Each structure stands twice: as C-alpha cells, then as structure tokens.
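Here comes an entry:

___
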Amino acid sequence: ARMSARTTFAEQALPAWKRAVLKVGTSLLAGDGGLSPRNAQHLAAFVEACHAQGRELLIVSSGAVAAGRAIAHASPRPGAAMAERQALAALGQAKLMTFWQDFFARPVAQVLLTHDDVRNRRRYLNAQATLRELLRCGALPIVNENDTVSVDELKLGDNDTLGAIVAALIDAEVLFIATDIDGLYDADPRTMPSAKPILTVTDPGDEVLAMAGGAGTDVGTGGMRTKILAAQRAGAAGIDTVLFNGTREAVSRALAQDRLIGTRLVAGRSRIAARKHWLRHAPVEAGAAIAIDAGAAVALIDKGASLLPIGVADARGEFRRGDLVEIVYSDDGQGIARGVTQYSAADIRRIARHRSQDIETILGYNYGDTIVHRDDLSLHATHPNEVTDG
C-alpha cells in the first residue's frame, strides 16, 4: 500500500560512524523464482560509497534458500522437512555469493555462522578474529546463518538476530536493517491508514515491540517484531539500529551521506559502557587468574595499555582462551583488573616473561601480541597498591 504524504518519514541526520553491519532480507533479494538485482544494486552502491569514505561495512545476507529453490525448481512442500530447507540453502549459498560478487570489485568472503559459533566463547573469538582480518585485508565479508547444518531448536532464529550478534562481534557502531517498508509506525500502516511514522526510539522496550505486531512479508522469516528484538539485542551492546526501506534507491543514496529516511533505534548506553558493564559483572572462572608484575600494573593503570606476556609472572588455576579471568599482583594476589584472555593458562605459563615476538617460536602459533587486549579489560584499581572493590 502506498503511504499518503502526511505519513512519510522526515529526513534526519545520523551520527558519523566508522564500522557497521548491513542486514539485507530475503524479501529485498527474491525476484521471479530466484535472486533479483533490483534492490541489491543500490544497496551495494551504498556499501561502496561507505568504503570510499574509509568506513567498514559488512553484509549479513539472507536469500540462500530462495536462490536454491530457483536452482532446484522445487516448490516448497507443505510441512517440508528441515532437510529440504537445508538442501535448498546449500544449493543456493554459492549462488548468493556469486550474486553479491557481481556488484563489487573487491573480493567478497563467505562467512557462515551457527549457534555454537556465537555461544562457545573460543569459537566466538575465532569468528571475531576472522571477521576483523577480512575487514583489515579489504575484503567484504558476507555473513549468513549456516542453514545447512543448523538444527531447528539451535537456530539463531533469523538474520535480524544474526545482524545484531555480528554487530557486537565486530564492535560496530550501527546495525542497518534494510527492509521493504519505510520504517516503524505506531500501528500497522497496511491496515491503519492513520498510522504515524516513528522517527526515533531511545532504548526500545516492550511498548515498541507491541507496536511492531507480527507484520512480515511472505518471502522472509522476520517481521517488524524480529527487527525490534534485534535492535534491543544490539542496544544491549551499545549499538544503534537503523531501519530503512531497501527498495528505494533515494533512501540508500541519502544513507551514504548520513541522512536517514526511516527509523533510528538508539541504544540506551554507549558501546564502551556496555562492554565494561559485561566485563565487570560477568562470572569469572573460579580460581583463574593471571599474575602480573608491578611494571605491567603501572602500564595497565597509568598508561591504559594492553597486557603483554613480558609483564606476566604466572597463570593460576586452569582456564582457556576466551575465558574471563582476574588479573592480580604476583606478590600478594590482590586484584587489579579482569579481562578476556587470548591465551590459555597452559600457554601463558610457557610465554610468561617473554617478548610478544617470541610467542610463535615458543608455542608454534600465536593469537596476537597481547595476553589481554585493552578493549577486553576492566580495571578495579586506580593506582598500584590502591585497589578498590569496583
């Protein structure tokens, strides 16, 4: 249904951002029995415009099942088995990658994630490292759920949710969700002609969910409700969500200039605050600690540095890469900070007191120069020997 002029979305300015996720749904990509370039063309142009401005953008794309259906010429059977959907996803996934690659000179990289990849802390870190490396080397990661092996009860749910998870994974500032309606309304615009556009929502709660209802299209799996849930999830990590109409080229063009015709869902707290809150309050492994010397403590507290192996005296207890552990003084065991470790206790015992460039020689591999990166660290102390219970 076409909206009357009085219910159109007024343009608003978006804050500048450096890294974002663009989620593109099946309804924007599905054409006559397959994938259509109609909307993908200008969405790709938006991505390219952002890259030209020195920004990083990653795509979470649905559409594998729709692409597979076109190849198999199979109409969905009523009550079709999960296996059929998975087979169609497998058939269509390569097609989906080729489809996207046609719009870009840079290489696109396929990244398929499952529930386990984001629930399991070590696999989460490995997925994060892979995505960061792909962005660093100038590739365009295109992420989808691994539908071929996902089991129903362990599905991430839909790609709106996956978009929010990936945004947190790469520490994005914004999650852009391209949909086939203009944005969020205070009622369903298809049944209520008087529905009014909502331009901005701060810290979206249950009342916004109620407004979203169950509206969705026939082709995709996510209605407006899943988009609000994704915005809540992104918001918990301090990430804003932007809903816009991916069928309108003018909207995509404006977006590349930080002008939004759509709805902005603003996170209730900053990314740093969200991260630090998690670091301070998440449970740590019992008895797991990294003991450091006074020099390293000064570097952490006074210089805002990362923790390097040279300043580590020992690892206490048993823990694995990706665990949240206490960081303590080696002489009295007093707590200084807590953080996510890039190395296991066994690895740390071998590389303690060594320089970062020796890690690979000692272990035969390395996960980077730092034991705990600055971004993964929350301090208790303000000064050596002046420790609070923060």
The chain has a mean pLDDT of 87. The longest strand covers residues 19-24. The CA atoms of residues 112 and 146 lie 5 Å apart. The radius of gyration is 23 Å.
